[in-house]
Amino acid sequence: MNVIKKAIEILQRRVFLLVGRAIVTAIDNDTSAQSLKVTIFTDEVGDGIERMQNYGFDSWPAVTDTLEAVILYQNGERSQGVAVCVHDRAARPADELAAGTSIQYDNAGARFKAAGGKVAIGNKSSSAAMTSTPPVSGSNELLEILDRLLTSLQGPVDLASVASTGTNSLILAELALLQADLQNIKGVL
Fold it and tell me: What is the value of pTM for the model shown?
């Protein structure tokens, strides 16, 4: 019976050690995957913890006293940790979120918010209106062109009709390059 109890205790310890919550104290961004130094509980230090991030997304959070990580340990071995989530409670814009809203943000206040099929780009001190195109300084014609480019890549933009409205030729040149790039991208897809 003593052998079974000992085996259960070993298994129990491993299960308890599979997941950990930690405070991030340093981030090394010079490797193929970020490497974290963390404090677990009050006295355990983890160094060289790899941080996994979703494909196509990357971030390098500023180290603060509110930067936390959730770490998974293979087989409960503390030497084989992988950070699967890093979160800063102080930087999270919770007051700007409603159900169904998505937001990308940084610790300086920049925001890219999507809700109800519309987007807003701004910062926490601005009140950028939700729009189907990013807020851009310029003419209504330019906003209409950008809206068509962003929402429907079905056909080429008629740059000749835009030119007749007297829109800046530099903008036209940039739009022509953008149109060519979009056509190349569509050809690859």
Answer: 0.60
